[in-house]
Amino acid sequence: MYLSILRRQLYKPTIPTLTRNFMNEMATRHNAKSKQPAKWRGKATSAQSSSKQATKLTNAHNEPSNPSVGQMATNSSAPLTIPVSSDEQKFNDLSEGGLVHPTLLLTITEDLKFEYMTPVQAATIRPILSERSDILAQAKTGTGKTVAFLLPALQNLVNRKIKPGSAVSLLVITPTRELALQIAAEAEALLQRLPQFKVCIAIGGTKKDIEERRILKGCDILIGTPGRLYDHLGGDSSPITEKLQQLDTLVLDEADRLLDMGFLPSLKQIVGCLPNRAVKPRQAMLFSATVPEYVQKVSGLVLSKEYKYISTIQKGEISTHERVPQQLIIAPNFSDMAAALLGALRQERSEVGAETFKAIVFAPTAGLVNFYTEVLQQFPDMPPILQLHARMTQSKRTNVTEQYRQARSGIMIATDVIARGMDFPAVTNVLQVGIPSDKESYVHRLGRTARAGAEGRGTFIISAHETWFSKWELKGITFNEHPADLTAQDDIKRIAERMDSQGKTYQAWLGFYKSYVKRMGWDNVRLVAEANKFALEGLGAPEVPSLEKSVVGKMGLRGVKGLSVIQNRSRQ
Ligand SMILES: Nc1ncnc2c1ncn2[C@@H]1O[C@H](COP(=O)(O)OP(=O)(O)OP(=O)(O)O)[C@@H](O)[C@H]1O
């Protein structure tokens, strides 16, 4: 049954349905946009607003007056700042010299109704196409990076003289399945007038052999997540490795995430299966809103030595949008977080208007996502609430994502599975309850609102123990501090007392905060004491929940005072 649901929901209709919905949605959005001045609606970046300084630097470095915005550097030298009024650049300007195929331009301007390029598109598309440079590109969230890499990559595909479907020309790697599906839909939207080119996905949680058959049947563009991609490649003899031997373009979207310790090993394995660049040259592009220092150190895995670094964000500038007010709510204790969240949601909903209030709430773990969902669903004044995390089946994840995409208002409570790249329309608010794993994660989560020049609001709810994060990790962000509204605390405790998931929530909490013991200035005994307080006061547990011996061992908490340890339950 599972397979038939997957086949029905994912393989047959997913890409076409997503594409159809996505294209309808784009058309609706862009019809709405067309009532406004026909320009990219994003506000000028500070790179644009500081164009005087930028001009000076440009002259000093004797750069040509390049039609791009922001910072550009070759290799890892200090970025140069190159000014431009990218607002003025139209997609149709790319027809000069046949840089972009007329059919692709027609799709962009007529079907998708994009007339002007966004700053990152204006800064990258020309060098990618005319110089065939490898690039590392950084631009704020929601500013059109997907088209910035897809359009030139698809142009590369059109330029090739090989038979459509005979070999994979473009490989896009993304950190999450949802993002892979979204990019696949966007690629199909861009190729709607060139249906001879086929887009395939390679993501986990789905039937591998069906995926493989589709890829082998005819695939020009492959979009996938690292683990599943490597499963398909798995060595020189795999037929899919064979299909990749004509690869022309490699893109890493959310590059910093793919190059961090979590994904780097599988990425190395995938690159090892691709053709040797000395024999079969290809173009590589890395895109992200955040480029921490380590990225430049490891970028040699995919980029040539002469790569260009193009950024529309000034050095030292925080990658969040200036137009997004960011509120900080400090709850006295972890046990007050659910009440503080409910208070903030009520406040924001009345601020934005119930009809259009569409929020994403990020929580640290699947267990906490589930807890907040179960609590908030008990309050009749809350709008429909969805939850999303990696412990759900892929078909459920795909359904929930699509449901939220279509919703006019509502709340999605999620882990970081949708923190990066996801382009849900009209999200008015992002709330983060508890610290994110790092500064980059904060930026990407917040970036789910205020996309494509729209307005949005951010709320960061932390306990008094977590203020080190807002003070030090997010130094440079100006927060408006608001008191926590804890009026619902007693009601929440009564709801939590009736739940049978207290043990799981407690375990999830311990697992997450264990990694931050040092940053909190705690030791393991204090960690357990705080977890127990959260369980008794916040979750209404009658006693400290028990943990299996093996779980305690895996968490590195063996022998720590205050835990209630039981023997492992036998698994059926
Ligand atoms: N030139 C354009 N004019 C108007 N809208 C555009 C243009 N290019 C892209 N968009 C729209 O802007 C939105 C954001 O684009 P996209 O998802 O590519 O952003 P992003 O920069 O990749 O964001 P993130 O950093 O979160 O991944 C999308 O809805 C997209 O359709």
From TrEMBL:
The Q motif is unique to and characteristic of the DEAD box family of RNA helicases and controls ATP binding and hydrolysis. Residues 57-83 have a biased composition (Polar residues). Residues 344-492 form the Helicase C-terminal domain. Keywords: ATP-binding, Helicase, Hydrolase, Nucleotide-binding, RNA-binding. Residues 29-83 are annotated as: Disordered. Belongs to the DEAD box helicase family. Residues 30-42 have a biased composition (Basic residues). One of its GO terms (molecular function) is RNA helicase activity. This is ATP-dependent RNA helicase. The lineage of its organism: Eukaryota, Fungi, Dikarya, Ascomycota, Pezizomycotina. Residues 126-309 form the Helicase ATP-binding domain. RNA helicase. Its EC number is 3.6.4.13. It comes from the Eukaryota. It catalyses: ATP + H2O = ADP + phosphate + H(+). It holds the Pfam family DEAD. Residues 43-56 have a biased composition (Low complexity).
